[in-house]
Amino acid sequence: MALLKLIRWPNLLMIVFVQYLIRFMITESLDIPHVLNHLQYFYGVLCSISLAAAGYVINDILDVSVDEHNKPQRVTVGKAFPDSVAWQIYFGLNILALFTGYLVAKAAGMPGLWMLPLIAIALLYFYSVDLKKRAIIGNVLVSLLTALPVALVALFDLVPAVTDENRDIVRAAVEVVSAYALFAFWSNFIREMIKDAEDYQGDARHGYRTLAVILGPRQVRYVIIILILVMLSFTGFYDVYLFASDHVSAIYIMLFVNLPLLYLIYLVIKSKTPADFKKASTLTKIIMLTGILSMVIFTLVLKFNW
Fold this sequence. Notes:
Elements: H1 2-6, H2 9-28, H3 38-62, H4 64-70, H5 83-107, H6 115-129, H7 137-158, H8 167-198, H9 200-205, H10 211-215, H11 217-243, H12 247-270, H13 274-304
Helix pairs in contact: 2-3, 2-7, 2-13, 3-5, 3-6, 3-7, 5-6, 6-7, 7-8, 8-11, 8-13, 11-12, 12-13
């Protein structure tokens, strides 16, 4: 149980769910050409969750004192696990990520891209050591790495399948997957900013220079609201554009993405305590999930002409 807590198993399940949702609801349901068989695709998923789990472990190893203030109930390193065991788990997960990443890159005909997991490992390490303590750059980095599993589907499974005959359909699928990767990045960026506001007191005590520490939790709310409005402007415009041709998908986006975003703005405006920001963070995570789930609605509309 402590191990599952250490590697944030609900977040890993989310990665698995999203990657297989893309595989079954876009690639296979819509007969999009692809190059990876089911075993090779599983290696890609395993690489993604190994990288993410290793990132959580190294973050906990290097951030025990801050977590004891911000999230004492989450601390496992030094309690359930001695530091030495946590380091062994970290290195084991990274070795697994490198091995499975190489297998996927080779299967996709792009063996040179085995370096991507290595780069991700290095970035996650530097994030945990230093970058998470800095304003904006740490938030951007972890949000990019959150979107990476979605983007890798297009890179390793779809792009190598392009031929002159199927170029248009594969390009359309890559654009769709890229749009979901962008959605994952921006929504996670919002959530990271909210989490910084939630953790403001502990971060300030330990010398962090996050935007919430620099501006204060009250002022950083305005930055968060601007970020939400940027997302809402895109999803709202797309919703209006979509309504003319696809009422079902447009209504779904309105009810489960745009209206929750408006409510998120309200929650952020009202947030004053860490518990308030925690509620906003949880809602942001739900919006990420409902946004990703829209691919199910889009696929069903396309297949059954709803």
